[in-house]
Amino acid sequence: YASTNSCEEGLAVIRPNSHRNSPPKWTTRQSQRLNSSTVPRGCNTTVFVLIVVFSSPKNFEQRSIIRSTWAEIKDRDPEITNIIIKGPYTVESMVKTVFLLGQTDKETQRRIETESEYYNDLVIGSFTDSYGNLTLKTKLGLQWAQTFCKFEYYLKTDDDVFVYSKGLVKWLWQLPRERVYTGRCDFNKTVIRTVGHK
């Protein structure tokens, strides 16, 4: 990736100049397969921002709070209304949020299956949910998104983060329509080299 912007005010916007027309190809191994019974409905229409929330299986309360707060845009903000008028989006298709989980103990897994049937917003991989499997979780999120959704932007976040959905939509809307990779720049961070430290 080549950056056309430097880090300003702690924010980097990177526009890749390679692989522009070639989406990633996924090879599926058993450990990365989607459980067919736990794949939520894809996006019925093109979504402006697809938010994929990495969640620990036992974090039922966090997922509930996210659903009731920032998981979707619920009110009619004048600026959001203007965006909807200008683009092919509805209030419902501005933001779609799904939660990404791995496998856990049987009792928790049963509760998760009930939650999945009710909300239809859980993507559950067939690997053990652990810190060591974050790479598999990341790949699964991208794989699910590419297979089941059409979207303008993809946001990866965690279930202990607050996302200001309306502000995010407004900010992304004013960006040039090209491939963008953006995030916060952390300056002068010390690398922790202690064995066993996560």
UniProtKB/TrEMBL annotation:
Keywords (alphabetical) are:
Glycosyltransferase, Golgi apparatus, Membrane, Signal-anchor, Transferase, Transmembrane, Transmembrane helix
Q: Where is region (Disordered) located?
A: 15-37
Give yes or no: UniProt keyword Cell cycle.
Answer: no
Q: Which GO terms describe its cellular component?
A: Golgi membrane
Give any single GO term for biological process.
Answer: protein O-linked glycosylation
- InterPro entries given in the database record: Glyco_trans_31
Compositional bias (Polar residues) at which positions? 19-37
The protein's Enzyme Commission number: 2.4.1.-
Could you cite one Gene Ontology molecular function of this protein?
Answer: hexosyltransferase activity
Q: Does the keyword Glycoprotein apply?
A: no
Task: Kindly give the membrane topology term recorded for this protein.
Answer: Single-pass type II membrane protein
Subcellular location, record wording: Golgi apparatus membrane
Family per record: Belongs to the glycosyltransferase 31 family.
Q: What is this protein called?
A: Hexosyltransferase
| Source taxonomy | Eukaryota, Metazoa, Cnidaria, Anthozoa, Octocorallia
